[in-house]
Amino acid sequence: MVGAALQAMRDMAAPGVTTAQLDELAETVIVGMGGIPSFKGYMGYPATICASVNEEIVHGIPSERVLESGDIVSVDVGAIYDGYQGDAALTAAIGKVDARVKALMGATQEALAAGIAAARTGARIGDVSHAIEAAADAAGFGIIREYGGHAIGRQMHEPPNIPNWGDAGKGILLKEGMTLCLEPMLTMGGEATEVLDDDWTVITQDHAKTAHFEHTIIVRAHGGEILTHWQDVGQG
Questions:
Q1: How far is residue 91's CA from residue 29's CA, in Å, rounded to a whole number?
Q2: Burial (CB count within 10 angstroms: exposed 0-12, middle 13-18, buried 19+), residue 134
Q3: For tag attachment on the chain, is the N or C end more exposed, with fewer CB atoms within 10 Å?
């Protein structure tokens, strides 16, 4: 359900579309498949998705804001089915974006892939965090350190937290069947953040663009098994 909602939003995201329209679409997809949007009402959150544009990192509230060519929008969505939760995110390019922005988006996906590959039975949380950090560093982008991933199950956010940076070999031992959300957030500028007056939207203090990708995965012997697939058709 989460993957289908993300794919539908990615297909719709284009110049002239509002973030409220993306929100409405995601809710239609999830409810139509028999699920419940998990974000709506969570700690008072008013929408089905988080829609974060350009310098907005996470938790942007959908509105009548019209997307323009050159923007990037990160959409994050969750669903509940039969008492269990899924959660994932992607960043979509709107119209034409410059090469450095495309590189940011690609590097964030690569950091997520590195974390998923490291989420093997017998590894530790620090191995996953370090893999994400190393991929971001290699690409030359900053890491948003104040926000990160988490375990997931009957609750959206369950322990442990999974930072997007850390030391290999540290943290709890990963066991077969653990279900985790990995979600690197990379930036073209500094890593300092602030929360806007709506008490939800998190932005970069320097207003540098950011990208955010997330999957719900199961820990397996070979690495993480992705549960929230969308079709990867390239960026921009």
A1: 19
A2: middle
A3: C
Instruction: Answer yes or no: are the C-beta atoms of 134 and 171 closer than 8 Å.
Output: no
Burial 182-204 (b: 16+ CB within 10 A, else e): bbbbbbbeebebeeeeeebbbbb
User: Residue 225: in which H helix or E strand, if any?
Assistant: strand 223-226
pLDDT in tens, the chain (236 residues): 999 999 999 999 999 999 999 999 999 999 999 999 999 999 999 999 999 999 999 999 999 999 999 999 999 999 999 999 999 999 999 999 999 999 999 999 999 999 999 999 999 999 999 999 999 999 999 999 999 999 999 999 999 999 999 999 999 999 999 999 999 999 999 999 999 999 999 999 999 999 999 999 999 999 999 999 987 644 33
Tell the CATH superfamily of the 2-226 domain.
Creatinase/methionine aminopeptidase superfamily (3.90.230.10)
Write the CB contacts of 137 (distance below 8 Å, at least 6 apart in sequence): 143
Write the DSSP symbol of residue 62. P
Q: How far is CA 171 from CA 128, 157, 186, 229, in A?
A: 10, 18, 23, 27
Which distant-in-sequence residues (6+ apart) come within 8 Å of 133 by Cβ? Answer: 111, 143, 164, 165, 166
DSSP state of 60: P
